[in-house]
Amino acid sequence: QSALTQPASVSGSPGQSIAISCTGTNSDIGAYNYVSWYQQHPGKAPKLMIYEVSNRPSGVSNRFSGSKSGNTASLTISGLQAEDEADYYCSAYTTSSTRVFGGGTKLTVL
Amino acid sequence: QVQLVESGGGVVQPGRSLRLSCAASGFTFSTHGMHWVRQAPGKGLEWVAVISYDGSDKFYADSVKGRFTISRDNSKNTLYLQMNSLRAEDTAVYYCAKDLHIPIVDYWGQGTLVTVSS
Lengths: 110, 118
Fold this sequence. Notes:
The complex is a heterodimer of chains A (110) and B (118).
Chain A: E1 9-12, E2 18-23, E3 35-40, E4 47-50, E5 64-69, E6 72-77, E7 86-93, E8 99-101, E9 105-109
Parallel strand pairs in A: 1-9
Antiparallel strand pairs in A: 2-6, 3-4, 3-7, 5-6, 7-8, 7-9
Chain B: E1 3-7, E2 10-12, E3 18-25, E4 34-39, E5 45-51, E6 58-60, E7 68-73, E8 78-83, E9 92-99, E10 105-108, E11 112-116
Parallel strand pairs in B: 2-11
Antiparallel strand pairs in B: 1-3, 3-8, 4-5, 4-9, 5-6, 7-8, 9-10, 9-11
């Protein structure tokens, strides 16, 4: 049950686009399309931003998009805004019916 | 709207036990899988356990297997986590979370803090 691998930090200026990668294995990201992304502001509960690789829940801005290739998933945020500054976590369903999270990525909007 | 309210956290000595509860409302509790996820201070999210909608299937992280037990009472719309043989490394905010009708967590509670310390 090793954690998925994410970069510790990314940064971008307002209006720019950034991408956060999430690398797993054939037993999690590579096995199913049950990949999700969460946004967490300090002191708050996580919020679902992307599910099933690329679907957005109602109310989530279309500036957020997701994709997957092999054992790596990615979250892209376009038109960066100050309120996007937060921690982002990927998660995947595994072949053992468990769940696994990434280590988290701190997004800084410069 | 969906509400998940955790309770039962607190300070406990190493080796002791604690039971967390999560009161659910705003959705049909008995038709959704439910999770516990924890976050140590200043650290990332760690998945702990999941229970199926009817309680028939339960899965655990290796770090808690044999010490923690997840359960639910669908008549009370409540999720539980029985934590035994607690260790310092179990110190974390524990979140209750629900699944969509697929294995994806969509809503989280606000969490309850468990501190294991002598």
